[in-house]
Amino acid sequence: MLNLSSLQNGQEQHESFKHPVRRNQTLVQYDYRHTNGHLFSCVKPTLEQCRQARDIWVQK
Q: How buried is 32 (Cβ within 10 angstroms: 0-12 exposed, 13-18 middle, 19+ buried)?
């Protein structure tokens, strides 16, 4: 389990886990604390997809 309280501004953390129903599928829980302190979180099939979603969020 990720510890969001230790996540510093500009830092990311991620963890892979098995889908609770589809056991053969792996997902990535991803968290990023922006330099302004706001937190972005998502769950996607790959780390690359998580980072792409983060980049779109940062641009907004």
A: buried
Amino acid at 33: R
CB 50 within 8 A of CB 57: no
Asked whether the beta carbons of 22 and 14 are under 8 A apart, the reply is no
**C-beta atoms surrounding 30 within 10 Å:** 22
What's this model's pTM, rounded to 2 decimal places? 0.84
**Sheet of strand 26-33: strand arrangement:** 11-18, 26-33, 39-44
Q: What backbone phi and psi angles, to 5 degrees, belong to 54?
A: -60, -45
The tens place of each residue's pLDDT in the chain, 60 residues long, gives 566 667 899 999 999 999 878 888 999 999 999 999 999 999 999 999 999 999 999 998
